[in-house]
Amino acid sequence: MLTRKDLVEIKNMFNNSCMDLVNNDNLVTAISNKIMEKMGTLIKNTETTLMEEMKALKKENETLKEQLHDLEQHSLCNNVRIHGVEEESNENVELKVLDLFKNKINLNISPQLIQSCHRVGRQDNLQGSKKSRCIIRR
Prior knowledge:
Order of helices and strands: HHEHEE
Helix content: 55-70%
Mean pLDDT: 84
Coiled coil: 47-74
Keywords: Coiled coil
Shape: rod-shaped
């Protein structure tokens, strides 16, 4: 059985051994170098991963830009630009277009075929302006 004196002696030996390890410059330098090496590898791997993700995101962004452009261009194919229709205050542009197609072009179209119908451009004072804004029918 260990006595109190034995326990104190073991504790002192352990403390001295720990202090010897801490005071050993070669050991501290070796541990520091190993930690720095591991940190460098970790940083390099993280940088590589981030660069690969950034490249993938840039490529995806370019693809999405191209797709958006294609969709915008395709959407414009369905537009009809109508000039020369007199503009009035509080007008119903869709009804004007339907009336124009029916009476001027002799083309009877269903209101369901019109996705949207509106004037384009800034609205000037209608009383002072003789030029009507263009109508877009989609």
